[in-house]
Every structure is written in C-alpha cells, then in structure tokens.
Amino acid sequence: MPSGNRKGTRNRRPARSPSDATPNSSPEDGRGRGPKSNPNGGSGSPVLEILVVFLAVYLLQGVAAFAGAMGGLFVLSPPLTDNPWTIVTSVYAHGGMGHLLSNSVALFLFGWPIARATSRLRFHLFFAITGALAGISQILLTDAVLASPLVAATGRPGVLGASGAVFALMGYLIASNRLSAGLASFVDVPRWVAITVFVVLAAAVTLATASPGVALIAHFAGFLLGLFAGRARVLHVGGRTRS
After folding, report:
1. b/e for 26-61, b at 16 or more Cβ within 10 A?
2. How many folded domains does the chain comprise?
3. Alpha-carbon torsion 175, 179, 184, 190, what sign?
4. Which residues span the membrane (predicted)?
C-alpha cells in the first residue's frame, strides 16, 4: 500500500458513536464546558416583547379614540370597579408619541440588564404588577386628596402609561446590583433605617424627574416597590448551571 494512504489512515480521527456525546457537549462556551443556562430559554427578550405591545396598544388607542372609547379601555380612573381591565391596559398605554418614546428608552436601559438575569414570565409579571400598583396608588391617593374639604376639586383625572413600572425596574436595578448586595451583606442595617433610606431615595428620584402633568405618586410608588423587590431579589432565578 502506498505510504500516502498509510499517513492518511494514521491522521484520520476515529468515528464517534452517538453514545460518545454528552448532553452539554455542543456547542461549548470556549472553555471546555457546556453552554450556560439561559433564563429566557434563548428565544428573545421580554423587553422587546413589551416594546411591541407598547406600539400595538398605541395604535389601538388611535382606533379607540376615533370610536370615543379611549377612556373606558385604556385610562385608569376612579372608581376602579367601573372599568377594572384598565388596571392592566393603562400600564401599556401612553398619552402621546413623546410619552411612548421616553418610556421605551427607559424600559430598554433599565429593563435589559434585569431581563438577562431572570425569566420571561417573572419579568412580565413584575412589569404588569408594579405598573398596576403604581397606577392604583396614583388614583387612590389623588382621589383621597381631592375628596378632602380643604381642596377645591375640579375633577378626578385618570392615569395611563408605563412610568410606574419603569421606575420599579430602576429601583430594582439599584437595590439588587452587586455593589448594593455587597454592602448589605457587610453592614448590618436595622430594618427601619433601610425603609427610611428607601423612602427618601424614592422621594428624591421622583422630585428630580418631576414635570407638569406627570403622575408623581405613581413614580414614587413604582420606584419604592422596585427598591424593596430588588432588596428581596424577587426576580432572581438562581445560579447558572455548568456541564
């Protein structure tokens, strides 16, 4: 047999049977280990999904406004029992293109790091629940103030927008990052001190972002919810696995 054929035989790798493969053997992450687990299953980001919902709802708002049904479908207003679905739909609705764009940018900035570390379901539930609670807080506290005899009430305005949920993501990111978690583990802070710090921080951030026509109570409530949720790490799904 020619020497060239013997050389080719020596350099040829033996064929592997299916039993040689391990569950995490391919593709590798470049360090001889299997792929890292992905909380979202590797199929897109909940941030992008919410942005799509924002756009779809905004288009539906135009149709509803033309039909005269905007308030009943997308604006959260008292009493809450009249149109209970607006507790959720108002979170994804916006008062104009500028409102939509500002919330979309903030969602991307604050939501993307959180979405990469949690599951799609937890992210969507957190966004919807904190946004709804922030809106409810705005309605109930505003309604209580306007019902006071010391205030000359001219109307009971409704609320819409994702700002409360976006502020909750901001608060979560601040309270759950490695620096905050490290300080909390080294410094034994009494609970009342932590609560006071969170309330003051939420008030400061709310006032710093205040502008005419903004639902300040919803911003404050959302940010405070995010701080407490971040401290409790409610979106944490555990460590990543290795092969």
Report:
1. eeeeeeeebbeeebbeeeebbbeebbeebeebbebb
2. 1
3. negative
4. 50-76, 96-114, 126-147, 159-180, 192-210, 216-234
Helix (H, G, I), strand (E, B) or coil at 111: helix
Q: Which of 53-62, 64-73, 111-120, 170-179 has the lowest mean pLDDT?
A: 170-179
- For 183-210, the pLDDT digits (tens) are 555 566 667 677 788 888 888 888 887 7
- Could you tell me if residue 53 is inside a domain? yes
Q: Is the pLDDT of residue 229 over 70?
A: yes
Structural domain range at position 95: 46-232
> What's the average model confidence in pLDDT over 211-222?
88
What's the CATH code of the domain at 94? 1.20.1540.10
Which residue, chain included where needed, has tokens 């300080």?
183
In eight-state DSSP terms, residue 81 is T
151 pLDDT exceeds 50? yes
Question: 């108002």: which residue's tokens?
Answer: 90
Q: What is the pTM of this model?
A: 0.75
* Spatial contact of 98 and 142, defined as CB atoms under 8 Å apart: no
159 three-state secondary structure: strand
- Encoded tokens for 26: 């391919």
